[in-house]
Specification:
single chain; about 425 residues; alpha/beta; Nucleoside Triphosphate Pyrophosphohydrolase; Rossmann fold; eight-stranded mixed β-sheet; seven-stranded mixed β-sheet; 18 strands; globular; IF_2B-like_C; hydrolase activity; IF-2B-related
Amino acid sequence: MTGGTDVPPVAVAFLRNDAEILLAQYRGPIAAFADRWTGLVGAADGNADGPENAGLPESATPVRSGDPFTVGAEGTEFVIHPALFECPSRDVELPDRAIDSDWVPATEIHRRETMPGLWRAYDRVRPTPATLSADTEHGSSYISIRAMEIVRDAAGALRAEGVGTDAAWADLTAVAEDVLAARPSMAALRTRVDRILSRAAGDRAAATVVSMAIEEIDAALDADRRAAETARSVVEGETVLTLSRSGTVLPVLAGPPERVVVAESRPDREGIGVAERVAEASVDVAVCVDAAVAHVLATEAIDAVVLGADTVLADGTLVNKVGSRAAAVAANGTETPVYVVTSKDKISPDRTPTFEAGPAEAVYDGDRAIDVHNPTFDATPPASVTGFLTEDGRLDPAEVADVAAEHAALAGWRTGGSESKSSSE
């Protein structure tokens, strides 16, 4: 802290729900920030659970923190410590000194009178292609929303800086290509980013990209919710088996089924977290080791296997967390239906899967000369899938090709073409 006053370092916490962040206005205790929009402000105490006195809800979970930096305001320098938190609800009780609040896309920071350095603070914690690549915890629906945020936020910054149309479009297409390269196996990410750029390719304006991104984020969140609603009607009152973590499947499990069996999903064991969430919803739940999936299907009364999707290929092949194929094949042997809960945006025009591999040390970190197979995904043939439960109802594997052809037409922006004109024309 500099400037001759005894003001502690300031933590600025951004709460994120879906794809919007919470901005607040304060009247005190920092006069330089009074009546200006900011995140939740508190003392930077180094606590991973969040800054002191900021009013963070107990349900908020840390996503990442950013490097601190110094800003000056009204003759005083403040050291800003930014942090991002995931918030499952928008029902947030603000501190007494907060006088107003608003959930907004992060691009709104550029359009409001904010505390000094607010965009700089958010820029240090917002998603990037690198954070997409490193995310081994979440499914493709969640990661695709973060991907669209990256494009939206880049466009918002270029709009605020007044960058010319051609230069801004060149920057944005480069950002989009980096996003696509971060997770090349994820069809939802590609479809949704392609749709934003395809819709904006008519006038190529950064402002249009911002608008299209906001619309497509809302549409994607709605599609994921409606796909879950389709699945709820299928599994209500049933006993189901699932594996891994899918943001689309999880809401299905926390209610309608009578009982849920979750495979632990090694090596990251994200199935354990899913089981805990299901238990919190007062649903009867059990965990099994991955190798026991076939045994559970053979010895317990399982009504359906419910899987998420990373990608669905044009021929109906499911690409999903490794173990999905084994579960589906075992289910076929016991005549148990296999349902895939997915938005249609996860359908890819590709016919060959792109696989990713996890780190070898997650399986074996010894010093012997041992090869390690740690695939992140596997491919389940369409004959092993009973149906895809989407936002528009059930699709049979044979119906997937038509959707794949529609998605193939969205990639024209990558070669300078436009398959659809901007809605602003």
